[in-house]
Every structure is written in structure tokens, then in C-alpha cells.
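Suppose a colleague, Dr. K., hands you the sequence of a protein chain of 402 amino acids and asks what its three-dimensional shape might be. Before reaching for any lab equipment, you can write down a predicted structure in C-alpha cell form. Begin with the sequence itself:
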Amino acid sequence: MSSLVCKRLTPLVSKDGRGDLKQVLLSLGVSGDGGLPLRLGIRDGNTSDSVETPIAIEECLALGLEGVQGIVADSKGYSRRTLGLCLEKGLGLVTLVPRTCAVRQELEAWGQQQPVLPLLAEKPGRTKDEACRRWHGQSVIRPAEVEYSDGRVTQEELRFLVVHSSQLAQQQTQTYASAQGKEAEAITDHVQRVHARWFACEADAEAAIAEYEHQGPGHRGRRPRPWRYHAVCYRVVAAPRRTRRARRGRPAKMDPPPLESGYRLVVDVEALANPEEDNGWMILATTVRAEVCGDADILHAYQDQNTTVEPGFRWIKNPAAIAPVWLEKPERIAALAMLTVIGLLVYSIIQRQVRLYLHTHGQQVPGNKGTTAIPTSLPLPFSRIPLNIKHLVHFACHDVVM
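The predicted structure, expressed as C-alpha cells, is then:
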């Protein structure tokens, strides 16, 4: 299967603090055999990923590529229009269901209720101490909304693959613990600021609670969640404080200190638990029938993105390739994208041919962790490119861009 991913890209990334630069949306389609780029689309940065994905699929079909059995996409590929297009064209689609979808939450709850799911894949750990990685899953049929080209929105029976990954569960557990620790530090500073405030009347204290909980006047719609990993509750307590004496002079020893009635807020913080059974789940939606492609093959096709399309975007987002470039005109941005995808094509062909040779002859080469039969070709920094090739790149940019 071919892979298709849409990502946003800026000539100078937003981390550089240059919000005035133009943002562009790139959609890259690569082959499942070696990740060779088949199509590169470039759109305005304001274009939605969900809108670009059906357009990218239609343009891939317009190329008349022979032998394409289906398309693998990221979570932006799950939309009513994309599903309807693939059903109309008879095209196989494998995509990840976003977490915000109700069908994903329903299927995750269904998977947690199952005693045992069939084993789909098993791989050894990357290190000696790491446990074996396993993927269990099973296909189910559920109704889903699809939109056809004539605008009809109907409910169609769609195949969903419920998968539990031991590796993903471990990663999510570690990520949750790390994020909860960072949030605890932020909450400590927040509690200190809240305790330092004093209110003259109870109404002011209640208004402050509404402000902290985003329930005050002017707040509409869904309330934001400032704290994701802790439950934070506020309550008002009476807290008189000492004030200045009304009369001058030294007070008598038996006189009580002058007090002013008031209120403060007390913050109760509770760390939210992260149940182990909630981690490690992912839901894949596909238009491929079960008799055509089994569950293990669907999972394998989706996992191939990590070795096909994703390395291409890492190559394109290399700071030596994109970050130092200042471009304003759309035609110059398009020219840069064209030259970049040509470079990605050469990069992918070299990597595929080397791996094919090693696999055919049963050989291995030194890698980062011992020998390997699947080496990764790395793009050289621009300063290490030979002089004659560097001049050729300059001439090509001058001829195309100017």
C-alpha cells in the first residue's frame, strides 16, 4: 500500500519567533516499497488537513498509478468525505481514528471488556532488558457516517480494527507520569499565588474561584482544562488579618491586636490516576474487507508508515533544508518544494537499493547498534556537499526560482 500524510511546514519554523512568515501545508504520498515519493502537494497554510486529504487522494488516482492497492493515512485521513471517496472509487484505505471520535471511545471500551484478543504481531525488544513487544487486536463492524461526491451523508457499515499495543501502553504510561510531574510543579506555584491573595468579602472570593475555573462572565462554550493530570478544587475560608491601630501610641499589654475580617482560598489538589487498562489502545478504520486483507496485514500496513512516509518528512524538515530559507512568492515556495522532493527521491532510491542488495545477498553492514541489514541513509549537511554538486544546486535554484 502507498502512504499519504499531510503536515504543516514553514520556511522558518514558528520556534524561531517569526510569526510573520508564510506557512504552507505539504501532503506527501510515497510508495509502500521503499518510500519513493509519488506525489507532493503544496497548499496555503490555512487549508485544513481534513480538506486536503480527499484532494490528495483524488490527485493520486488521477496520476494513473498502476499496482496501487490502497492508501495508508494518518488520523487526518479519517473524515466523512475521505471515507465516501474511497468507497466510491473502490480504494482500500487504512487510517487511524482520532481520539475525539465517539466510535473510538466506544471501541476502546469494548476492547477493555474482552478477556483476550488474538495476537496479531510480536517483535523482540530493542534492548536485552526490554520485554517482547506484542500487538493484540480484532476487527469489528460498526456504522459510520460517510459523505459521497453528490453531498449525500449516510450511515455505512465500516470495518474497525481494535488494537492493543504493549509498547504503546508503556510509552503512554511513561509520558503520563512525566507530564503529571511537570504539572505538579506548575500547580505548586499556582497554589502559592492563590494562598497569597486576601479578599475583603466572600463575594470577591467566590468570583476569584469562578475566574480560576473559567466560569466567570464572558466564558462560553466548553470550559478549558488548565490542569489535565490533577483535580484542583477551591474553597473559601475565613481568614482575618492584622491591621493598623486606630490610635497612635503604644498599645496596652492586655489589648488584643487589631484584626480585619476577610477571606482566603484553600486549594485541594489530587493527582488523577492513570489506569493501565486505558493505555495502549489504537483504533484503525479501513475500507478493505476482511476476506481480502486480514487483521495482521492491516496492522502491518499502518505500521509501515514509520519506515516510508515519516522519514521523508523528517528529511524535508531538516533545518539545513528548510529553516534558513526566506521565500515570499508562492511560485518560489513551490519551486523549493519541487527541488526538495527530487532530493527525497534520490535519497529514497539509494536507501531502497542498498537494502535490496543486502537482503538479496544475505549481508549486513555496521550500524549504530551492531550490524544491520536495513541501514538508513542520512542527508548530508549542505556544507559537506562536494563543491561541484553545490554549484549545480545553486544553478538549478537560480534557473527554477528566479
